[in-house]
Amino acid sequence: MARRYNLTDTLPEAETFLPCSKIINPSAYIFRINRCQCVCFSVQTEEGFEILLGPEVTYGPPGIDLSRPVAMTIAHCAEVDADNWNVQLKRKIQDNKWEEVMSVEDESTSCYCLMDSSSCHLLLDQPGSYALVGEPLTQAAVKRLKLAVFGSMGPNPMDYSLRVYCVDDTPHAFQGVVATETCRGGQLLEEPKILPFRGNTFSLQVSIQDVPQFLWNIKPFTTCQEFSFSQVWCSNQQPLHCAFSLERYSPTTTQFSCKISVKQVKGHEQILQVYTSVAEVSLALRSKKESVLFFMQTDCTVTSQTGPKAFKIPLSIHQRICATFDTANTKGKDWQILAQKLHLDRNLLYFAKQQSPSAVILSLWEAQHQDTGDLDSLASALEEIGKIQSKSTVAKSHEEPESDSVHHFGTGSPDNPVCGMGELTNHETANSVPEYTS
């Protein structure tokens, strides 16, 4: 997949953000990003198995000359807990082998890693193929499964088929299911649910319950189906699913209901409640995209917006923040205060080696807030810094004149907004905010 992107575009899913002035020679490159969920990654170690926690992501081409790191966000399906998981970032090398780049718990000067509940935000210098790999340390390690049930009529108008999917809880995995079901005319019958699946070696059982008697008949030996632990735990290669085949006794029967139980033995259970009209199903074949695309669009926890729709700090404000915080004062580098107030003060040595630490911090912050576009939190952080600097200035006012660097921060007042951010409100986006003029 190839497409030409502007320098401030967000590349689709496992989003990659290329800030301004990032490419030394932008006219020479077409940027490519590929996602691959169907990569086999199950490696035995002395302690257990390493498994893929999200899609493999490749960006390139190789040899891009970057002035500062690329910010990349990769979705994952682990309930991250340092006591239960050892999560590593790995990069593909020759012969389809993988090398460890870093553990997400470590601090490194070669790349930056920030984990949250559903995504991993990275700063990378080197193009290539990357993946998040997890090694369970205890049987309490949990990966999230997304459960969804689809239905469609069979070749015989009296037949009806239910398909239950259990896939990793990442946007890319579920979009693959939606694409498959859209092609076959499937209708999403219940909002997807999340099942915590523990690394306790126990299997997963899927059963159908409460099928209306005398109206519907379920084909024998299919009421309860089971997947082994390894099938579920290492399910990143293909969407894991099972099917239930039903037959109505009379063509006048147009309603169908049942419960689908998805349960891990000695673990958690989820119930998918199905209510549907068989007549509506046939109509849905003509508008089959509507129901599934709704969930595909609203369910994605990682944005795939590009170009002018991607969230980014207005350029002039971005430049003024960098000019302000990259300047040293009597207390040291101001970018450290910026990192602290934006809650990005882990692994400060990584930022310290950058030509513009503030620009790299803002790139990571933009990637972290692509979903919410929350400029208010940035404005609040800058205002708080301004108040801190104002208090420091008052304390020194009897000793020496106010320095120019303090003037840069301002006090957060309406007449002197902090770095121009006082103009922002809850209802404005990065694209609708008027740029700051000094």
TrEMBL record:
Pfam families: Death (PF00531), UPA (PF17217), ZU5 (PF00791). It is found in: Membrane. Residues 390-438 are annotated as: Disordered. Its main location: membrane. Residues 396-407 have a biased composition (Basic and acidic residues). SMART domains: DEATH. It is a single-pass membrane protein. Residues 427-438 have a biased composition (Polar residues). Residues 332-387 form the Death domain. Transmembrane segments: none annotated. This is Death domain-containing protein.
